[in-house]
Amino acid sequence: MLSQQELHGVYVPVITPFTQDYELDLPSYHRYLKNLLSCDIQGLVINGTTGEAPTVAWKEVVQIVEETRRSLDERRLPLIIGTGTNDTVSSMKRTELAGQIGADAVLVVTPYYSRPSIDGILHHFRRVAEIGIPVILYEVPSRTGIRLPVDAIRRIMEIPGVIGMKDSTASTELLRSLSPYDTKPVLCGNDALFYEMLVHGASGGILASANMNTEDFLQVFRLAAQGNFFCSEVEFNKLFPYIQKLFEESNPAPLKWLLANQGIISSDSLRLPMGPITDELKQSLAHEIHNLKKTVL
Fold first, then answer.
1. Integer angstrom CA distances of residue 267 from 22, 46, 163, 256, 280
2. Is 138 labeled as catalytic in the residue annotation?
3. Tell me, what's the pLDDT at 182?
Protein backbone atom coordinates (compact mmCIF):
# COMPACT_ATOMS: atom_id res chain seq x y z
CA MET A 1 0.00 0.00 0.00
CA LEU A 2 1.15 3.51 -0.80
CA SER A 3 1.60 5.90 2.12
CA GLN A 4 1.37 9.68 2.01
CA GLN A 5 5.10 9.85 2.80
CA GLU A 6 5.78 7.95 -0.43
CA LEU A 7 3.56 10.16 -2.56
CA HIS A 8 6.24 12.21 -4.29
CA GLY A 9 8.09 12.36 -7.59
CA VAL A 10 6.91 11.69 -11.13
CA TYR A 11 4.02 9.28 -11.64
CA VAL A 12 3.14 8.44 -15.24
CA PRO A 13 -0.49 7.81 -16.24
CA VAL A 14 -0.38 5.05 -18.84
CA ILE A 15 -2.27 4.93 -22.11
CA THR A 16 -4.42 1.98 -23.18
CA PRO A 17 -3.24 0.92 -26.67
CA PHE A 18 -5.89 -0.38 -29.06
CA THR A 19 -5.61 -2.20 -32.36
CA GLN A 20 -7.15 -0.69 -35.48
CA ASP A 21 -10.22 -2.79 -34.61
CA TYR A 22 -10.35 -1.06 -31.18
CA GLU A 23 -9.40 -4.19 -29.22
CA LEU A 24 -6.84 -4.12 -26.42
CA ASP A 25 -3.31 -4.28 -27.90
CA LEU A 26 -1.23 -6.00 -25.23
CA PRO A 27 1.91 -6.48 -27.40
CA SER A 28 2.02 -2.71 -27.94
CA TYR A 29 1.41 -2.14 -24.24
CA HIS A 30 4.32 -4.41 -23.32
CA ARG A 31 6.64 -2.60 -25.74
CA TYR A 32 5.43 0.82 -24.55
CA LEU A 33 5.83 -0.10 -20.89
CA LYS A 34 9.32 -1.51 -21.40
CA ASN A 35 10.34 1.82 -22.91
CA LEU A 36 8.76 3.78 -20.05
CA LEU A 37 10.26 1.61 -17.32
CA SER A 38 13.79 2.32 -18.56
CA CYS A 39 13.46 5.54 -16.51
CA ASP A 40 13.40 5.75 -12.73
CA ILE A 41 9.80 6.93 -12.36
CA GLN A 42 8.08 6.77 -8.98
CA GLY A 43 4.89 5.00 -10.05
CA LEU A 44 2.25 4.27 -12.69
CA VAL A 45 -1.39 5.30 -12.90
CA ILE A 46 -3.68 2.83 -14.68
CA ASN A 47 -7.23 3.55 -15.88
CA GLY A 48 -7.05 7.31 -15.61
CA THR A 49 -8.00 9.99 -18.12
CA THR A 50 -4.88 9.20 -20.19
CA GLY A 51 -5.91 5.53 -20.17
CA GLU A 52 -9.36 6.39 -21.61
CA ALA A 53 -11.08 5.03 -18.50
CA PRO A 54 -14.64 5.82 -19.66
CA THR A 55 -14.37 3.35 -22.56
CA VAL A 56 -12.27 0.63 -20.92
CA ALA A 57 -14.09 -2.34 -19.38
CA TRP A 58 -13.01 -3.55 -15.95
CA LYS A 59 -11.91 -6.93 -17.38
CA GLU A 60 -9.54 -4.95 -19.62
CA VAL A 61 -8.21 -3.05 -16.59
CA VAL A 62 -7.43 -6.44 -15.04
CA GLN A 63 -5.56 -7.49 -18.20
CA ILE A 64 -3.57 -4.26 -18.21
CA VAL A 65 -2.61 -4.71 -14.55
CA GLU A 66 -1.56 -8.32 -15.19
CA GLU A 67 0.59 -7.24 -18.15
CA THR A 68 2.07 -4.44 -16.04
CA ARG A 69 3.05 -6.91 -13.32
CA ARG A 70 4.73 -9.12 -15.92
CA SER A 71 6.64 -6.17 -17.34
CA LEU A 72 7.75 -5.06 -13.89
CA ASP A 73 9.04 -8.56 -13.14
CA GLU A 74 10.67 -8.19 -9.70
CA ARG A 75 10.82 -4.40 -9.75
CA ARG A 76 8.73 -2.81 -7.01
CA LEU A 77 6.82 0.16 -8.40
CA PRO A 78 3.58 1.59 -6.96
CA LEU A 79 0.48 1.07 -9.09
CA ILE A 80 -2.38 3.54 -8.74
CA ILE A 81 -5.67 2.51 -10.35
CA GLY A 82 -8.44 4.91 -11.27
CA THR A 83 -11.71 3.76 -9.66
CA GLY A 84 -13.73 6.96 -9.28
CA THR A 85 -17.13 7.37 -10.95
CA ASN A 86 -20.18 9.52 -10.25
CA ASP A 87 -21.80 6.57 -8.47
CA THR A 88 -20.59 5.97 -4.91
CA VAL A 89 -21.53 2.27 -4.83
CA SER A 90 -19.78 1.69 -8.17
CA SER A 91 -16.68 3.56 -6.96
CA MET A 92 -16.61 1.46 -3.79
CA LYS A 93 -16.92 -1.78 -5.75
CA ARG A 94 -14.21 -0.77 -8.22
CA THR A 95 -11.94 0.22 -5.32
CA GLU A 96 -12.49 -3.16 -3.71
CA LEU A 97 -11.71 -4.91 -7.01
CA ALA A 98 -8.60 -2.74 -7.47
CA GLY A 99 -7.35 -3.89 -4.09
CA GLN A 100 -7.88 -7.51 -5.11
CA ILE A 101 -5.65 -7.09 -8.19
CA GLY A 102 -2.88 -5.37 -6.27
CA ALA A 103 -3.49 -1.62 -6.38
CA ASP A 104 -1.20 0.30 -4.03
CA ALA A 105 -3.66 3.23 -4.11
CA VAL A 106 -6.70 4.37 -6.06
CA LEU A 107 -7.33 7.63 -7.88
CA VAL A 108 -10.86 8.88 -7.17
CA VAL A 109 -12.24 11.76 -9.20
CA THR A 110 -14.71 14.27 -7.81
CA PRO A 111 -18.16 12.90 -8.78
CA TYR A 112 -19.13 14.39 -12.14
CA TYR A 113 -22.36 15.09 -14.04
CA SER A 114 -24.73 14.61 -11.08
CA ARG A 115 -23.72 17.94 -9.49
CA PRO A 116 -23.95 16.63 -5.90
CA SER A 117 -23.81 18.85 -2.83
CA ILE A 118 -20.55 19.30 -0.95
CA ASP A 119 -21.97 17.13 1.80
CA GLY A 120 -22.75 14.40 -0.75
CA ILE A 121 -19.19 14.60 -2.11
CA LEU A 122 -17.74 14.29 1.40
CA HIS A 123 -19.87 11.21 2.06
CA HIS A 124 -18.74 9.80 -1.30
CA PHE A 125 -15.06 10.00 -0.34
CA ARG A 126 -15.67 8.70 3.18
CA ARG A 127 -17.44 5.63 1.84
CA VAL A 128 -14.75 4.90 -0.75
CA ALA A 129 -11.96 5.37 1.84
CA GLU A 130 -13.67 2.87 4.14
CA ILE A 131 -12.78 0.09 1.67
CA GLY A 132 -9.23 0.26 3.01
CA ILE A 133 -7.21 1.05 -0.15
CA PRO A 134 -5.32 4.37 0.03
CA VAL A 135 -7.27 7.07 -1.82
CA ILE A 136 -5.90 9.97 -3.88
CA LEU A 137 -8.44 12.73 -4.49
CA TYR A 138 -8.54 13.79 -8.15
CA GLU A 139 -9.71 17.39 -8.53
CA VAL A 140 -10.23 18.25 -12.22
CA PRO A 141 -12.99 20.88 -12.60
CA SER A 142 -12.62 21.13 -16.38
CA ARG A 143 -13.85 17.54 -16.71
CA THR A 144 -16.23 17.20 -13.74
CA GLY A 145 -18.04 20.54 -13.88
CA ILE A 146 -17.49 20.99 -10.13
CA ARG A 147 -14.82 23.11 -8.46
CA LEU A 148 -14.42 22.14 -4.82
CA PRO A 149 -13.90 24.96 -2.32
CA VAL A 150 -10.69 24.86 -0.31
CA ASP A 151 -12.53 24.01 2.91
CA ALA A 152 -14.15 20.97 1.29
CA ILE A 153 -10.79 19.76 -0.03
CA ARG A 154 -9.27 20.15 3.43
CA ARG A 155 -12.09 18.08 4.90
CA ILE A 156 -11.65 15.36 2.27
CA MET A 157 -7.89 15.31 2.86
CA GLU A 158 -8.54 14.83 6.60
CA ILE A 159 -10.48 11.61 5.96
CA PRO A 160 -8.49 8.59 7.22
CA GLY A 161 -7.31 6.64 4.21
CA VAL A 162 -7.08 9.65 1.89
CA ILE A 163 -3.33 10.08 1.35
CA GLY A 164 -3.16 13.08 -0.98
CA MET A 165 -4.52 14.83 -4.04
CA LYS A 166 -3.95 15.20 -7.77
CA ASP A 167 -4.56 18.88 -8.51
CA SER A 168 -5.60 19.40 -12.13
CA THR A 169 -7.01 22.87 -11.67
CA ALA A 170 -6.05 25.70 -14.02
CA SER A 171 -3.69 27.59 -11.67
CA THR A 172 -1.65 27.31 -8.49
CA GLU A 173 -4.38 29.08 -6.50
CA LEU A 174 -5.67 25.91 -4.82
CA LEU A 175 -2.19 24.71 -3.89
CA ARG A 176 -1.27 28.13 -2.49
CA SER A 177 -4.51 28.21 -0.50
CA LEU A 178 -3.68 24.84 1.05
CA SER A 179 -0.02 25.62 1.76
CA PRO A 180 -0.56 27.44 5.12
CA TYR A 181 -2.12 24.24 6.49
CA ASP A 182 -0.45 20.98 7.42
CA THR A 183 -2.07 19.17 4.52
CA LYS A 184 -1.31 15.89 2.80
CA PRO A 185 0.79 15.72 -0.41
CA VAL A 186 -0.45 17.43 -3.54
CA LEU A 187 0.64 16.13 -6.96
CA CYS A 188 0.46 18.38 -10.00
CA GLY A 189 -2.00 17.14 -12.61
CA ASN A 190 -1.78 20.13 -14.92
CA ASP A 191 1.44 19.47 -16.82
CA ALA A 192 1.93 23.09 -17.93
CA LEU A 193 2.08 24.14 -14.25
CA PHE A 194 4.50 21.43 -13.11
CA TYR A 195 7.46 23.69 -12.33
CA GLU A 196 5.33 26.43 -10.78
CA MET A 197 3.53 23.92 -8.56
CA LEU A 198 6.83 22.46 -7.38
CA VAL A 199 7.88 25.97 -6.36
CA HIS A 200 4.70 26.29 -4.30
CA GLY A 201 5.15 23.00 -2.51
CA ALA A 202 3.72 20.23 -4.72
CA SER A 203 5.32 16.87 -3.95
CA GLY A 204 5.55 15.86 -7.60
CA GLY A 205 3.19 15.22 -10.47
CA ILE A 206 0.98 12.77 -12.32
CA LEU A 207 1.95 13.90 -15.80
CA ALA A 208 0.64 12.58 -19.12
CA SER A 209 3.39 14.43 -20.99
CA ALA A 210 6.02 12.46 -19.06
CA ASN A 211 5.11 9.44 -21.19
CA MET A 212 7.75 10.88 -23.53
CA ASN A 213 10.95 12.73 -22.60
CA THR A 214 10.45 11.05 -19.23
CA GLU A 215 13.98 11.57 -18.00
CA ASP A 216 13.69 15.33 -18.63
CA PHE A 217 10.61 15.55 -16.39
CA LEU A 218 12.41 13.56 -13.72
CA GLN A 219 15.29 16.03 -13.90
CA VAL A 220 12.91 18.97 -13.40
CA PHE A 221 11.64 17.27 -10.25
CA ARG A 222 15.07 16.25 -8.95
CA LEU A 223 16.50 19.75 -9.31
CA ALA A 224 13.50 21.32 -7.57
CA ALA A 225 13.70 18.75 -4.76
CA GLN A 226 17.35 19.76 -4.26
CA GLY A 227 16.31 23.41 -4.02
CA ASN A 228 17.91 24.27 -7.36
CA PHE A 229 14.85 26.03 -8.75
CA PHE A 230 16.79 28.07 -11.29
CA CYS A 231 18.09 25.00 -13.13
CA SER A 232 14.77 23.24 -12.68
CA GLU A 233 13.02 26.13 -14.42
CA VAL A 234 15.56 26.11 -17.25
CA GLU A 235 14.90 22.41 -17.84
CA PHE A 236 11.15 22.87 -17.63
CA ASN A 237 11.18 25.75 -20.10
CA LYS A 238 12.71 23.41 -22.69
CA LEU A 239 9.72 21.08 -22.26
CA PHE A 240 7.03 23.76 -22.15
CA PRO A 241 6.37 24.17 -25.93
CA TYR A 242 6.00 20.37 -26.23
CA ILE A 243 3.57 20.31 -23.28
CA GLN A 244 1.49 23.10 -24.80
CA LYS A 245 1.17 21.26 -28.12
CA LEU A 246 0.38 17.96 -26.41
CA PHE A 247 -2.73 19.45 -24.82
CA GLU A 248 -3.88 21.52 -27.80
CA GLU A 249 -6.43 18.79 -28.48
CA SER A 250 -7.99 16.38 -25.97
CA ASN A 251 -5.67 14.02 -24.09
CA PRO A 252 -4.67 11.26 -24.88
CA ALA A 253 -5.18 11.66 -28.65
CA PRO A 254 -2.01 13.74 -29.29
CA LEU A 255 0.05 11.50 -27.00
CA LYS A 256 -1.12 8.34 -28.73
CA TRP A 257 -0.26 9.81 -32.12
CA LEU A 258 3.24 10.67 -30.91
CA LEU A 259 3.80 7.20 -29.47
CA ALA A 260 2.60 5.57 -32.69
CA ASN A 261 4.69 7.97 -34.77
CA GLN A 262 7.76 6.95 -32.76
CA GLY A 263 6.97 3.25 -33.29
CA ILE A 264 6.39 2.63 -29.58
CA ILE A 265 2.78 1.50 -30.12
CA SER A 266 1.31 0.07 -33.31
CA SER A 267 -1.69 2.36 -33.69
CA ASP A 268 -3.00 5.70 -32.43
CA SER A 269 -6.54 4.26 -32.30
CA LEU A 270 -8.94 5.70 -29.75
CA ARG A 271 -12.41 4.51 -28.84
CA LEU A 272 -15.29 6.78 -29.72
CA PRO A 273 -16.26 9.41 -28.90
CA MET A 274 -12.51 10.19 -28.88
CA GLY A 275 -11.04 10.59 -32.36
CA PRO A 276 -7.72 11.26 -34.10
CA ILE A 277 -5.95 14.59 -34.00
CA THR A 278 -5.85 17.05 -36.88
CA ASP A 279 -3.13 17.01 -39.52
CA GLU A 280 -2.09 20.50 -38.39
CA LEU A 281 -1.40 19.27 -34.87
CA LYS A 282 0.50 16.24 -36.19
CA GLN A 283 2.85 18.55 -38.05
CA SER A 284 3.39 20.91 -35.13
CA LEU A 285 3.89 18.05 -32.65
CA ALA A 286 6.50 16.45 -34.88
CA HIS A 287 8.19 19.84 -35.13
CA GLU A 288 8.24 20.32 -31.34
CA ILE A 289 9.64 16.85 -30.70
CA HIS A 290 12.36 17.51 -33.27
CA ASN A 291 13.21 20.83 -31.61
CA LEU A 292 13.21 19.28 -28.16
CA LYS A 293 15.64 16.56 -29.21
CA LYS A 294 17.98 19.23 -30.64
CA THR A 295 17.70 21.25 -27.40
CA VAL A 296 18.54 18.23 -25.25
CA LEU A 297 21.49 17.32 -27.46
1. 10, 19, 36, 8, 19
2. yes
3. 82
